[in-house]
Amino acid sequence: MSDTNVQLLDTIANEIKACTNCPLHETRTQAVPGEGQPGAKIAFIGEAPGRDEDEQGRPFIGRSGQLLRRTIAEIGLTEEEVFIGNVLKCRPPGNRDPKPDEIEACRHYLMAQLVLIQPKVVVTLGRYSMNLLISPSLKISKDHGKHIIKDGLLYLPTFHPSAILRNFSSPEEFKKDLLKAKILSEKY
After folding, report:
1. Domain residue extents for the chain
2. Are 98 and 91 in contact (CB under 8 A)?
3. What is the pLDDT of residues 39-60, one digit of tens each?
């Protein structure tokens, strides 16, 4: 892990905290840059912070985050080995879906973070990160668990943990997908 990349990641986090590129900055409590270090084996990317994340400035700490973090531990990874973040860096009001202009306003931050982190695998959590990072033509129900190489990065789409909590998807499939990501991160 390069000290320069750590400093650059911190610089991006500070830029995110001061960002006014879209109207979401007017309603946020805190921006949520993401957590992790350069050299993380796997980057887990969701759609947007929720209420708990907005209050504490940390990604995936509410119910969905507890499921994600517990599953990460169950497959044998430590939080030091992963980066956890979102496409949007600010909470949309009422946890509504991200709007295209908001995604575009945050896109460069996420892309810069991924360049500095250089994960072996990027796990997209749900359709928004999958559609942004891989392809808008993919469907999460059909394409989860399939690894895809794009622009030199290895991606693995899976369900958003909130879909598991709402019984829209299987917890076993979610865990299986995360385990596949771990195996891929060790192979490549």
Report:
1. 3-18+31-187
2. no
3. 999 999 999 999 999 999 999 9
Classify residue 45 by burial, with Cβ atoms within 10 Å: 0-12, 13-18, 19+.
buried
Amino acid at 103: I
Which residues is 121 bridged to in the sheet?
42
Which strands, in side-by-side order, build the sheet including 121-125?
82-86, 42-46, 121-125, 153-158, 148-150
Please say whether the structural domain 3-18+31-187 has been given the CATH code 3.40.470.10. Answer: yes
Report pTM: 0.96
Q: How confident is the model over 89-138, as pLDDT tens digits? A: 999 999 999 999 999 999 999 999 999 999 999 999 999 999 999 999 99
